[in-house]
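Recall that a protein's primary structure is simply its ordered list of amino acids. Everything else, from secondary elements to tertiary packing, is in principle encoded there. The following example makes that idea concrete.
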Amino acid sequence: MNGKSFCEIPRSCAKDIDLALDDAHAAKDAWGTTSVTERSNLLLKIADRIEQNIDIKYLEIAETWDNGKAVRETLAADIPLAVDHFRYSTGCLRAQEGLIGEIDEKTVSYHFHEPLGVVGQIIP
């Protein structure tokens, strides 16, 4: 690298989390009614964009600084696995199906999968 800054990262606070949650909740209904095909294609585009930028090394450096890991671990595992996770999730979306189960001669149970809302994950 040349010693010049390539990004700025804010120190977030509770207000920032609330704003992110507000945005996620606002997008929930539109995402939930988006077709499986379209959701799948959007996730594949994210995977493609990450993969297209692997050689630039900005993602790896930012991820290394964020996590305090060795660069080799970020290059060999974290970023390639992020791409793989997006593609895997896309495959799950496309393969997931509902089902109907018979409870008795007059009753069936219909199961279908749909996005329910916003989730958060904290990784120490």
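Strands lie at 99-104, 107-111. The helical segments are 14-32, 36-52, 58-67, 71-95.
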